[in-house]
Amino acid sequence: MFIKSGNTPLLIFSIFTALYIIVTFVWIVKTEKRLGRFFLGKKAKDLEDTIEIMQKEMMSLKDYREKNSKDVADLYSKTKKSIRGLETIRFNPFPDQGSNQSFAIGLLNEENDGVVISSLYSRERMSVFAKPIKKGKSDYELTEEEKEVLKKAEV
Q1: Which of the two ends of the chain, N or C, has the fewest CB atoms closer than 10 A to its terminal CB?
Q2: Number of helices (H) and strands (E), helices first, in the chain?
């Protein structure tokens, strides 16, 4: 029963080979069980259909994301032109009569373009003025109240 020294390498090789075969067999059995659970009740055609449906849904989501990105860019460009700064000042241009019935309103967008609307009120009449604004400046002379309302309305 003793092992001869000449057969030792052959015996070690046989043991490792047997262990390798056992481990490989166990791995194959476990893999087969996993695949069996994964494909349980499924046919290859069903899986292909599922993959195709998922691919179509991914393409649909990609198209939806691109459309949303375009919509967001459009909304951003529109909001740049919308009124972002709004300010109102009431004042009395004629201290000897009336009260603070006159006003100046500044309406500016993100680029400081817009309009200043002012009203001068007296007992005999009321005047309304509108002056266009580009980059925070006007081609028309602005009163102190109009300058103040523009400064406060700047975004």
Answers
A1: N
A2: 3, 4
Residue 31 tokens, joined? 């893999």
pLDDT at position 41 is: 63
Q: Are 108 and 83 in contact (CB under 8 A)?
A: yes
| Stretch (H or E) spanning 81 | helix 44-81
Q: State residue 69's pLDDT score.
A: 94
Q: Which residue has the tokens 């817009």?
A: 114
- The structural domains of the chain, with segments of one domain joined by +, span 43-81, 85-153
Low-confidence ranges of the chain (pLDDT < 50): 1
Q: What's the farthest any 2 CA atoms get from each other in the chain?
A: 133
**SS3 letters across 103-115:** EEEEEECCCCCEE
Which among 108, 116, 151, 112 has a CA at the least distance from the CA of 135? 112
**Cut 0.70: pTM above it:** no
